[in-house]
Every structure is written in structure tokens, then in C-alpha cells.
């Protein structure tokens, strides 16, 4: 049995989790079966681990805020003829305890022990703290 592994990815151009949900609801962001997908240039080398219960964790405006379960990896051939990977994800956006992340390109693997915990029931709709406040709290060890 493969070990579970996650991905983390910047959600470029979104201001909050609602923006991410709105983008994923558009036809352009969906696989032919209607599930949201994220198309990336590289195919994950550790695909089996991702598909054994992994999620994609979204970084919005410098904070890791939510996750979505990875359903499958589809081959996607762009109009340029280049083979890409479509990471097909469950439409449910699960809010997590916010954590600060520095900018990075592409996606990164995320070990389960390093992934933030899901927010407890009743706290899923809370707005994230402003990045400056999150940074200050993280600096003193509260977040």
C-alpha cells in the first residue's frame, strides 16, 4: 500500500476561498465529467502516494487556507500538443487551520505530518486573518 502524500499549490489571482470556488465552478476549470481540475506542466513522480488519499492544499494570498481531495490524474494535451497533467479534485473545499507559506513556483509535496489540520466543525466559514496579523502571530509562535 502506498504512503499518503499531499500537494501544496499557490492559488494565483484569488483573494479568498470563495474566489477559488468560483473559478473552479467555471467550465474552463473543469474536467469533462464536471469535476474541478488543475492542469500542470509536470506529472507528479509520486502519483501513487497522492492517489492513496492525498489532497491538494491551496495557498491563497500567502496563507494555506483549504484543501481538496485528489480524485485522479488525467492526461491533458493542450492546443500546443504538449502533454500535461490534470489533477482532478473533489469539489468540496475543506477549510484548514491557516498557516503562512512563502511564495514558490509550481507545486510542492506536503507530508501528512506537516499538513495543517482541518478546521473544527462550525469554524469552516471563518475569514482568514489579514496576512500581516498572521505573520506577526507566527513570528511570536502563536500560529
Number of domains: 1
Structural class, by secondary structure, is alpha+beta
In angstroms, what separates the terminal alpha carbons?
A: 34 Å
Radius of gyration (Å): 15 Å
As a percent range, the share of helical residues equals: 10-25%
Number of strands: 7
Average pLDDT number: 87
Q: How many separate helices?
A: 3
Percent strand = 25-35%
Shape: globular
Protein name: DUF1489 family protein
InterPro entries: UCP032025
Give your account of this protein's structure.
By secondary structure, this protein is α+β, with helices and mostly antiparallel strands. It has one domain (6-139). The protein is 15% helix and 34% strand. The protein is built from three helices and seven strands. It has helices at residues 17-25, 47-50, 131-139; strands at 6-10, 37-40, 55-60, 63-77, 83-89, 94-100, 107-110. Strands 1, 2, 3, 4, 5, 6 and 7 form a seven-stranded mixed β-sheet that branches. The longest helix is centred in the N-terminal third of the chain and has 9 residues, at 17-25. The protein is globular. The model has no long low-confidence stretch (mean pLDDT 87). This is DUF1489 family protein. InterPro entries: UCP032025.
Amino acid at each position: 500500500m502506498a504512503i499518503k502524500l499531499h500537494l501544496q499549490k499557490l492559488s494565483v489571482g484569488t483573494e479568498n476561498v470563495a474566489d477559488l470556488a468560483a473559478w473552479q465552478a467555471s467550465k474552463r476549470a473543469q474536467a469533462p465529467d464536471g469535476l474541478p481540475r488543475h492542469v500542470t506542466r509536470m506529472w507528479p513522480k509520486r502519483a501513487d502516494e497522492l492517489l492513496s488519499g492525498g489532497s491538494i492544499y491551496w495557498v491563497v494570498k500567502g496563507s494555506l487556507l483549504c484543501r481538496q481531495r485528489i480524485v485522479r490524474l488525467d492526461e491533458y494535451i493542450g492546443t500546443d500538443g504538449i502533454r500535461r497533467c490534470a489533477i482532478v479534485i473533489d469539489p468540496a473545499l475543506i477549510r484548514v487551520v491557516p498557516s503562512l507559506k512563502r511564495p514558490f513556483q509550481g507545486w510542492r509535496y506536503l507530508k501528512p505530518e506537516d499538513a495543517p489540520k482541518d478546521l473544527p466543525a462550525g469554524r469552516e466559514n471563518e475569514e482568514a486573518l489579514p496576512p500581516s496579523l498572521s505573520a506577526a502571530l507566527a513570528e511570536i509562535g502563536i500560529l
